[in-house]
TrEMBL record:
Keywords: Membrane, Transmembrane, Transmembrane helix. It comes from the Bacteria. Residues 397-417 are annotated as: Disordered. InterPro entries: P-loop_NTPase, Stf3_sulfotransferase. This is Sulfotransferase. It holds the Pfam family Sulfotransfer_3. The chain crosses the membrane at residues 26-47. Signal peptide: none annotated.
Amino acid sequence: MPSDDDGDKRRKRHKKKKMGLTVERYGGRLLYMWFGMRFLTLMRLFWRGRFSFTLNCIPDTLALFLFVPWNTPLTWISEALYKKKAESLPLDKPPVFVVGHWRSGTTLMHDLFSEDPNLAFPTTYECFVPHHFLLTEGTLDHLAKGLLPKRRPQDDVPVGFDRPQEEEFAMLMLGQGSPLVTMAWPRLGPADTDFIDFEGVPEAEVRRWADAYMWFYRRLMLRHGKTLVMKTPPNTARIKLLTKLFPDARWVHISRSPLKVFPSTVKLWRALYSAQGLHNPPHCDAWLDDYVLDLMERVTTVYERDKHLIPSENLYEIRYEDLVKNPIDSMRAIYEKLRIEGFDEAEGPMRAFLAERSDHKVSSYKMPKDLTQKIAERLKPFIDAHGYREAVDAALAEPDLQSESSSDPKVPEETLS
C-alpha cells in the first residue's frame, strides 16, 4: 500500500486547522459531493452512518443545507418542464461504454473521446446534480465553480463542472446502491459492494437501479442529443444488465498492469475517503488493501465471464500500455472497429489535448514482495489473459525497493481513473 509520502508533494496528507479542530485531508481539500442529494436521500445517508459525524466535519456538513433543500423544488420545476420530452425521446443513438477497473486509464480514454465534437458525455455538474441539471446547468454551475479545486486531490487531473464525469456519481446522488457510498462513512468499512455486479442484490432493487439509470440517461440524451460516451469503472462488471438495457451499445475495455493499478487505487480511495468522509480521519487502513484486491479480483473475473454477451464487433479491448505508446493510432483503430464516425474531426482536438497534458509528473511504486506475490496469485487469470505475465514475473524477481518518483513525457498517469 502506498505510504502517505508517495507521489507529488502537492498530494501529501494535509491538516488544516478549522474552528480549533484538525481536519485531515489526504491529498488536499475537495468540496463535499453530497450537496447534489435531495433532502430525504441525504437523511437516509446520515442515518446509514447513525449520524456518527466527527466534530471537525460538522461545519462542512452544515454547509450542505445551503444547497440540499433547494434540490426538491428545483426537481419539481425541471420535471414539469422536461419530463414529457425526456420520456418520449427516441433512444436511437446507442451509447459507447468505456470500462475497466479504476486507475486503468478509463479517464484518459474518456477525455480523448470527449474531444470529439460529434460525441457527448455526462459532465461533472450533470452527475453531481442529476435531478435538475436540465433546468440549472449554465447558471448554478457558473455560480458555484469557485467552490471546486483546480485539480482532483488524488491525481492532479483538472476539475471543472463541464469536465467529463462518471455517471456512478449520479446514481449515488439519486439514492441508488453504489460502492461509492463507502466514501461517506469509511470507518464503518465497505458498503454496497454487491452493487458492483448486482450479485446478491434483490431483483426489485436491481430494477429500481436500472429505472434510475434510464431516467438519468434519457435526460442526458435530451440535453446533448448526441451519442453519449459513458465511463464508470463498476460498469465493467455490469455487462449482464447493461447489454439488456442497451443491446447495440459499443464497448471499450481498457486494462493495465495490476501492479500499477493496485497501489494507485489504494491512493485513490485514501484521498476520497478523507475528502468526502462525514467522519475524519477515515481510519480505513485496516481493511483498505484487502478491499481493493477483492474488488480487483471480482471486477476482472465478472468481466471475463460476461464479455461474451457483447457482440464481438461491438467490443474493443486495449491495454493502457499500448494506448500511451500511440494514442492517436489507438483511437483511430477503436473508431474503425466500433464504426464510430468522424475521427478526422476528432483527431486535431485529441492531439491538442495530449499536448496540454504532456508535462505532468507521475508517481510510481515498488510494492513489498509479499503483496506483489498476493496480487499475482489472486489475479492470475487476468494477468495471463491480458499479457502481463512477463511484467509480473519480472517484478517478482526484483529485490524489495522503496517507492520512487518518475515522469512520463507522453501521457501522464494523472489522466487515469
